[in-house]
Amino acid sequence: MKMIDDLNLPETYLYMEDHTWAKRYGERVKIGISDYAQDQLGEIIYVELPQIGEFFEKNSVFGTVESVKATSELYMPVGGEVVEINTFLKGSPNLVNKSPYDKGWMIDIKPHDLKELDTLLTKEAYIEILKKED
């Protein structure tokens, strides 16, 4: 397990206490799990993602990730419509371990309300949450 100081937590991403991240670009938002989450889960062996066109509300479950240790639900940091899924995860779920922000992203959505991003945690606030869990 990584120490908190060793985690890759990009400044430009926003985080949930449930360890998903959101990255806005234009009118869309990419979503995945944090480096902390993948580190805690261990080797990821399966990722279940929704279908394109599905709608989800903020905080609802949009999929699951299964590792050699456990199965965990994935929570929406913002509500919206799924417009793209990372199809590479079907054949290579360990991309989430290797590259949780770049190659291991999970879904791309068109959010209902971009203001929901304002409720998410900055890197610094997320680190404070992780310190309490440690």
Primary descriptors:
OB fold (Dihydrolipoamide Acetyltransferase, E2P); alpha+beta; globular; six-stranded antiparallel sheet; single chain
**Average pLDDT, to the nearest integer?**
97
Strand content: 25-35%
Radius of gyration: 14 Å
Task: Please bin the fraction of helical residues.
Answer: 10-25%
* Count of all domains: 1
Query: What spatial form do the alpha-carbon principal axes imply?
Result: globular
| CATH homologous superfamily grouping | RNA polymerase II/Efflux pump adaptor protein, barrel-sandwich hybrid domain
The unreliable regions are none
**What is the CATH third-level topology name?**
OB fold (Dihydrolipoamide Acetyltransferase, E2P)
Strand order of the largest sheet: 1-2-3-9-8-5
Q: Please, how many helices?
A: 4
SSE run: EEEHEEEEEHHEH
* CATH architectural grouping: Beta Barrel
The number of distinct β-strands equals: 9
Gap from first CA to last CA: 11 Å
The main β sheet shows up as: 6 strands, antiparallel
Overall SS class: alpha+beta
| CATH hierarchy class name | Mainly Beta
Topology:
Blueprint: E1 14-15, E2 20-25, E3 28-33, H1 35-41, E4 44-48, E5 55-56, E6 61-67, E7 71-75, E8 80-85, H2 88-91, H3 95-98, E9 107-111, H4 123-133
Antiparallel strand pairs: 1-2, 2-3, 3-9, 4-6, 5-8, 6-7, 8-9
Notes on the structure:
The protein has 134 residues and is of the alpha+beta class. The protein has one domain (4-128): Beta Barrel (OB fold (Dihydrolipoamide Acetyltransferase, E2P)). It contains 4 helices and 9 strands, in the order βββαβββββααβα. Strands 1-2-3-9-8-5 form a 6-stranded antiparallel beta sheet. A 3-stranded antiparallel beta sheet has the order 4-6-7.
